[in-house]
C-alpha cells in the first residue's frame, strides 16, 4: 500500500488533474448523449428529423470557435483555458434543463460547443507538457480509461434520474463539469513552461500568430489527411451509440433505463480492458490495429442488421468498445508526433474537433438514415468503416515514421558519447568514399575538398 501511494505521488500532478477532468467530461457525455434523443422526442416534443440538427448545432459551435480560439492555450496558457472551458460547458449543460423549445436549445448547444472546442485538446496538451514522448500512448490510454470511468457513472446516474425526468440528467452532467472547473481553479498550475519548446519553436510561434496558426490542418497536409480518415471512421462508428437508443426503443427491446445500463456496461468494458489492450497492441503496427478496429465495428453492424434483440445490442456495443480501445490512443499520439512543441494545443484542437464531430455529425447523419429505414445506418456504415480503417492505419503509420525520421535527424547531428573524434586522415578517406559513391569524384576537385576537410 505504501509503495502504491508513493508511486502515485510521484506522477505529474497536472497529468493526474487532467485525468480527473477527463472523468468529469466522460460523466457529462455519458449522462447527455444517450438520453438527449429520448428527451427531445418525448419531453421536448422535437421532431425526429430535427434531433440530428440540434446535434449539428453543437458541432457548429465547435467549428465556429476552433479557428478563433482553438490554439489559445498555446498563447495564454493551459490553466485559464481549462478553468473557463470547464465552467462554460458545465453551465451550458445546466442551461439545457432550464430552456424550452428547439430554438433556445439550439442556441445553448452552439455556445456549449464553443466552450467544448478547447476543453479536450487542452487537457491532452497539458498531459503532453509534463510527460515524456515515449509515455504519451500510455497516458492517452489512461485518459480514455478515466473518460470511460465517467461514462459508467454518467449513464447509470442518468438511468436513475430518467425515472424522475429525462431533463434532470443535464443537471447531473453540468454539475460534474462545474466541479471539475472548481478543482482546476484550486489545484492546477501552469504547464506550458514544462514542455521542451526550443528557441526555434518559439520564434515560429511569434511569427505565426493569427488565424493560420490556429488552423494547423490547413498548413500541415499530413495532419489534414490524418484527420480526414479520423472523421470518417468516428462518424460511421458513432452510429452505434447515436442510433441504438431509438433502434432499441422502437423495437421494444430497451427503455431509457435499459439504454443507460447498456452504455454503462460498454464504458465499464473499456475501463477493465483498455490498458490490457494497449499493452498487447504495443508491438503491432498502426495498420494492423485500425484494420482490427474496422473488422470489429463491421461485425457490430452485421449483428444489428440481423436483429435488434438484447443480445445483439450487447454484442454490438462490446465490439464497438473493442474498436475504440484499439484506435483511441493512436490518434492523439499520432497528432502529437506531428505537432511542434509550441503548437501542441493547436494541433490537439484540430484533432479534437475532428473526433468530436462524431457527437454531432454522427447523430445527424445516423438519425437521418434511420428516419429513411431502421437498418440503413448499419448497411451504410459497413463500406465506410472498411475504407476509413485502411486510410487511418496508413495515415497513423506515416505520422509515426515522420516523428522517427525527425528524431534520427536530431541524433545524427551529434557525436555519440564515448566515440573518439576521427583523425584528419580518416575524415579524408570518408570524404573520398562519399564523393565516389555520389559519382562526382575528380582528382582536382577531390584534392580541394580534402584540403578544406583537413583544414576544418
Task: Give an overview in words.
The protein is mainly alpha-helical and 456 residues long. It has 22 helices and no strands. Helix 8 (119-129) crosses helix 18 (344-356). The longest helix is centred in the C-terminal third of the chain and has 37 residues, at 376-412. The radius of gyration is 25 Å and the shape is globular.
Concise synopsis of the structure shown:
By secondary structure, the chain is an all-alpha fold. The chain has helices spanning 2-9, 13-32, 36-42, 48-69, 73-76, 78-98, 102-116, 119-129, 136-162, 168-187, 199-207, 216-219, 221-251, 256-281, 286-306, 310-327, 330-338, 344-356, 361-372, 376-412, 424-438, 443-455.
β-strand amount: under 5%
Structural class label: mainly alpha
Low-confidence stretches: 1-7, 195-214, 410-422, 441-447, 449-456
User: Overall mean pLDDT score?
Assistant: 75
> In angstroms, what is the radius of gyration?
25 Å
The biggest beta sheet, please?
none
Topology readout:
Layout: H1 2-9, H2 13-32, H3 36-42, H4 48-69, H5 73-76, H6 78-98, H7 102-116, H8 119-129, H9 136-162, H10 168-187, H11 199-207, H12 216-219, H13 221-251, H14 256-281, H15 286-306, H16 310-327, H17 330-338, H18 344-356, H19 361-372, H20 376-412, H21 424-438, H22 443-455
Question: What would the keywords be for this entry?
Answer:
456 residues, mainly alpha, 22 helices, 0% strand, globular, disordered N terminus, disordered C terminus
